[in-house]
């Protein structure tokens, strides 16, 4: 059975709402999937209901922001309980920080001399099926940038300037476990691009009790994937796959890389799958 355990929706920065996600999953013959929006679970219950209706295997998911050293760690949380209120409170705090980071981007640009009216930004809204986030869409609509690539390459506001307030990965991992969920490190090849994915750079996550790695992701090159698979086998950890698809926002095709559940190590995720 083909699996994709990392999909974004309109609840965070993806372009697809619940119906569209489920239709696209079906169209690609993906049998097991999870939606994992950034720090928000608004579309989890609606997608879960649709998945049950059409008979797709589903895992509740969310991609939790955390910060340590110079790294913006994304921790995927799977299979948490539906009433995990203290975990949901942490997500709400993270979401508020994410909104604040949008405001910070705008204020940094104003400080650099961009002719932006902060009140215009505060009042601004956008159609969620465009994907992306408030600052991105605002800057596109006001003619200051052309798209996601341009935003990151030309506005030059690094994550360390706006994401430092996210909680420590140890706190996030503990909260996920307390919620009955399973914490998996997303795209190690992207997060640890500069430091390298090694036993040494992964050791802190192991110390914090991470349950697995997203070994299959387009941002893990072949050597990284092999290393992660070996590292998970050595430590008896979970192996997952995710496309990180955001609908059409960025060029990340749903269901890619194409991996079968037989090639994963789902471990304790298995008992959390909703059929
Ligand atoms: Zn991520
Ligand atoms: Zn993601």
Please name the defining characteristics of this protein:
single chain, 275 residues, alpha/beta, TIM Barrel, 2 domains, five-stranded mixed sheet, four-stranded mixed sheet, 11 helices, 17% strand, binds zinc ion
* Strand and helix order: EHEHEEEHHHHHHEHHEHEE
Shape: globular
What portion of residues is helical?
A: 40-55%
Count of structural domains? 2
The beta-strand count equals 9
Query: Whole-number radius of gyration?
Result: 18 Å
Q: How would you sum up the major sheet? A: 5 strands, mixed
For this structure, what is the CATH homologous superfamily of the largest domain?
Metal-dependent hydrolases
Order of strands in the sheet with the most strands? 4-5-6-7-8
Low-confidence stretches: none
**pLDDT average, as an integer?**
97
Query: Kindly, what is the distance between the CA atoms of the first and last residues, rounded to a whole number of angstroms?
Result: 13 Å
The CATH class of the largest domain: Alpha Beta
The assigned structural class equals alpha/beta
Q: Please, how many helices?
A: 11
- CATH architectural type of the largest domain: Alpha-Beta Barrel
């Amino acid at each position: 059975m083909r699996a994709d355990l990392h999909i974004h929706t309109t609840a965070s920065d993806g372009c697809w709402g619940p119906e569209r996600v489920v239709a696209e999953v079906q169209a690609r013959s993906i049998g097991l999937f999870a939606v994992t929006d950034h720090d928000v679970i608004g579309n989890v219950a609606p997608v879960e209901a649709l998945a049950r209706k059409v008979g797709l295997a589903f895992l509740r998911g969310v991609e939790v922001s955390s910060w340590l050293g110079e790294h913006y760690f994304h921790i995927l949380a799977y299979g948490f309980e539906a009433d995990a209120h203290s975990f949901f409170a942490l997500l709400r705090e993270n979401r508020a920080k994410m909104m604040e980071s949008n405001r910070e981007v705008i204020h940094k640009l104003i400080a650099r001399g961009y002719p932006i009216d902060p009140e215009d930004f505060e009042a601004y809204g956008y159609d969620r099926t465009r994907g992306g986030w408030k600052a991105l869409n605002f800057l596109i609509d006001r003619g200051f940038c052309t798209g996601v690539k341009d935003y990151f390459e030309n506005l030059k506001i690094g994550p360390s300037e706006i994401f430092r307030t996210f909680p420590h990965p140890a706190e996030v991992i503990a909260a996920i476990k307390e919620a009955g969920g399973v914490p998996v490190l997303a795209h190690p090849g992207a997060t640890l691009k500069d430091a390298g994915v090694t036993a040494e750079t992964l050791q802190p996550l192991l110390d914090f009790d991470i349950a697995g790695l997203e070994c299959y992701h387009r941002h893990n090159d072949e050597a990284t994937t092999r290393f992660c698979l070996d590292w998970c086998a050595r430590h008896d950890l979970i192996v997952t796959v995710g496309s990180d698809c955001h609908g059409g926002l960025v060029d990340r095709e749903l269901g890619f890389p194409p991996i079968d559940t037989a090639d994963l190590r789902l471990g304790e995720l298995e008992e959390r799958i909703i059929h």
